[in-house]
Amino acid sequence: MNKNFYINIGVGIAYTSYTFKEQGTHFPFILQGGIGCMWKDFFIEDRFKHYSNAGLSRPNMSINSNLVLIGIYF
């Protein structure tokens, strides 16, 4: 069996036309990281995502989520 374990990290910025009063901005910053395993064409990954305005305005309530991804590459 050929299994490949991996980690990933990412950072970015998004724009939304919707106003989130908890964020105080239309530009949330996104930080994410995950760990996963690939086997043949299949994968499973656990990923954490954090959204905030990086302290650029008040208020700055963050949104955090944990995702479990299961899929196939084709």
Please give the alpha-carbon distance between the first and last residues. 19 Å
**Rounded Rg:** 16 Å
Q: Structural class given helices, strands, pairing? A: mainly beta
Strand order of the largest sheet: 1-2-3-4
CATH topology: Outer membrane efflux proteins (OEP)
How would you state the average pLDDT, rounded?
87
Indicate the CATH architecture. Answer: Single Sheet
Number of strands: 4
Helix content: under 10%
Number of domains: 1
Low-confidence stretches: none
Please report which band the strand proportion falls in: under 5%, 5-15%, 15-25%, 25-35%, 35-45% or over 45%: over 45%
**Main sheet attributes: strand count, strand direction, barrel closure:** 4 strands, antiparallel
Quaternary state of the chains: single chain
CATH class: Mainly Beta
Order of helices and strands: EEEE
Give a concise summary:
The chain is mainly β and 74 residues long. It is built from no helices and 4 strands.
Question: What do you see in this structure?
Answer:
The protein has 74 residues and is mainly β. It has a single domain (3-72), classed as Outer membrane efflux proteins (OEP), CATH 2.20.200. It is built from no helices and four strands. The protein has strands spanning 3-13, 29-39, 42-52, 63-72. A four-stranded antiparallel beta sheet has the order 1-2-3-4, with no helix packed on it. A hairpin with a 2-residue loop joins strand 2 (29-39) and strand 3. It starts with a strand and ends with a strand. The mean pLDDT is 87.
